[in-house]
Amino acid sequence: MKRESVLPVLLPDASRLVQTALRERRDGWRVRLRASHGGALLAVFVTGCAIAQAQVQAGNPSILETIWKWTPLLARGFVFNLAISFMAMGIGSIAGLFLGYAQISLLSPVRKTSWFVTHFFRNAPWLVLLFYCMFLIPFEVTLFGTKIPIPDWTKATLGLALPVMANVSEILRGAVQSIPTTQWEAASSLAFNRRQTMWMIILPQCIKRMLPPWMNLYAILTMSTVLASIVGVNEMMTLTQRALSAENRPGLLLSFYSYVLLWFFVYCYPIARWTVHLEARYAVKQ
Amino acid sequence: MMDRPAVNKSPTQRERKRSGSDPSRPIVDVADVHQAFGSVEVLKGVSMIVRKGGVVCIIGPSGSGKSTLLRCINGLVPIQSGSIRVADFEVHQLRTDKEKIALRKEVSMVFQQYNLFPHKTALENVMMAPIHVLHEERNEVRERAVALLTKVGLAQKRDSYPGELSGGQQQRVAIARSLAMRPEVMLFDEVTAALDPETVKEVLNTIRELAREGMTCILVTHEMRFAREIADEVLFTDGGKIVEAGPPAELFDRPRMERTKAFLSQVL
Ligand SMILES: Nc1ncnc2c1ncn2[C@@H]1O[C@H](COP(=O)(O)OP(=O)(O)O)[C@@H](O)[C@H]1O
Ligand SMILES: [Mg+2]
């Protein structure tokens, strides 16, 4: 469609604002981790350790020794967080691609249903979805006479995969719609049918546009895996609580929790940097 | 708005069908076409014919429906009434993909903004449609694509992506891409309007060469000198109608209608 501006002079600014607004709508909440966040976290950690060290009673191990002692256990928890994040991302992405593809269907019932599903799961709080899965999925199912247990972490993974699915669906829809209609027109004038146009011309161009918001989503998901502690999964945050109650010493809270956050920062920061890098590169190319 | 069955049964339509084998019959025949986007009527009864090998230039102010007319001829937008025939195809009656493919083998369009596929190299852009739409043999298509790129002077740029080419180069790749479908008719929609003055010439040279080789061309253009040089007939459109038509010498030098005079005095 053609849009004519009354004040063409304003167009570059206006269209940039529109672009930004559209991108925010498409990509949702963005995480912008900066090096300064890491610095602040480190400062909190050092302060926490200093305060705790001052409270160490004679004969007890130093605060750093205590943290070091618990690190292998916490690391195992962290690996569990990552495993949950990989699986939730994988399941959510695959389901989300189908859902997003349904959102651009020519069949109105398919399009409307998938739109509703997408927006329902996209706007529901993650924690609510997590509880929902925790309590609605049975702890075991019987298939052909054999009882198959469903552990809590599986339910948590599914609970986290739901919002991922909804966000990926919206990322795909946004990317397809951001491809200029002239590409459709050119394909059509070369006699490509809709399916061919979609798979050979539109979707390949979408991959580049989808990658940054998709990685951003992954960073959010990774940080959200600690929500699983609330529903009792043995991930890093749960293990931290356990370590703290085992130590049963005052002053450890700040140092331990900032230590955990540092782990997540170290993991997510490179992803955030790479996202920014990709965005800048694609912005120049287009 | 007339409904279609009534149009199909009109005597003129049957007459045309009967004269199907006549070699002198126009390759493009547009008769009293009305086209509207919603309630806005864009084409208000347009008729034109183009003979095989003919070059028709369409000029007129912006918004007068020139692009829409080309889109109708290519079957990209449906029309409300009237008829469009290209070669043996009644464009307004095509429904299935198969029929549309058959039409677009006959008539191919080049756009103002090139519209190349940015994720494919120049060569791949040219090869895609013959391979995937016409299902032709890959090696044969490749040979033809290289020949076409050579023809438009871009053989050495075959592995470049559109983003690495200048506007004029992209537009010439777009022309090669259209030619790869081996069309009988080429439609050019202001193909030089987005180009730098220096690169306009290289694109016009390509079109001139095509016209000399006998390709049937319909061009929407603002290059009046070029239109005068290559056109057999020039149409002046305004407000969704063809106001005046004639050979370039007549239309440019002795326009009859006031509207045409006013437009030409502005652009010449
Ligand atoms: N897809 C569309 N939807 C609605 N109106 C359109 C569309 N395409 C073109 N128009 C309108 O049709 C009129 C003619 O457009 P166009 O054929 O592009 O004119 P030209 O190519 O002569 O400048 C314009 O007023 C334009 O706004
Ligand atoms: Mg136009």
List the helices and strands and how they pair.
The complex is a heterodimer of chains A (286) and B (268).
Chain A: H1 11-27, H2 35-55, H3 63-103, H4 108-123, H5 126-136, E1 140-143, E2 146-149, H6 152-178, H7 181-189, H8 194-224, H9 236-247, H10 252-285
Antiparallel strand pairs in A: 1-2
Helix pairs in contact in A: 2-10, 3-4, 3-6, 3-9, 3-10, 4-6, 5-6, 6-8, 7-8, 8-10, 9-10
Chain B: H1 4-9, H2 11-18, E1 28-37, E2 40-50, E3 55-59, H3 66-73, E4 81-86, E5 89-90, H4 97-106, E6 107-110, H5 122-132, H6 138-151, H7 167-179, E7 185-189, H8 197-212, E8 216-220, H9 224-230, E9 233-238, E10 241-246, H10 248-253, H11 258-267
Parallel strand pairs in B: 3-8, 3-9, 6-7, 7-8
Antiparallel strand pairs in B: 1-2, 1-4, 4-5, 9-10
The structure holds adenosine-5'-diphosphate (ADP) and magnesium ion.
- Provide the β-strand percentage band of chain B: 15-25%
Give the N-to-C terminal Cα separation of chain A.
20 Å
Q: How is the main sheet of chain A built? A: 2 strands, antiparallel
Q: Please tally the helical runs of chain B, counting DSSP H or I stretches of 4 or more residues.
A: 11
- The stretches of 5 or more residues of chain A where confidence is low (pLDDT under 50) are 1-8
Shape of chain A: flat
- Biggest interface between protein chains, with counts per chain? A-B, 17 and 25 residues
Q: Oligomeric state of the chains? A: heterodimer
Identify the strand order in the major beta sheet of chain B. Answer: 6-7-8-3-9-10
The outline of chain B comes out as: globular
Sketch the major β-sheet of chain B: 6 strands, mixed
Please indicate the count of domains of chain A: 1
Beta-strand segment tally of chain A = 2
* Individual helix count of chain A: 10
What Rg of chain A do the Cα atoms give?
24 Å
pLDDT below 50 for ≥5 consecutive residues: which ranges of chain B? 1-20
What small ligands are held by the chains?
adenosine-5'-diphosphate, magnesium ion
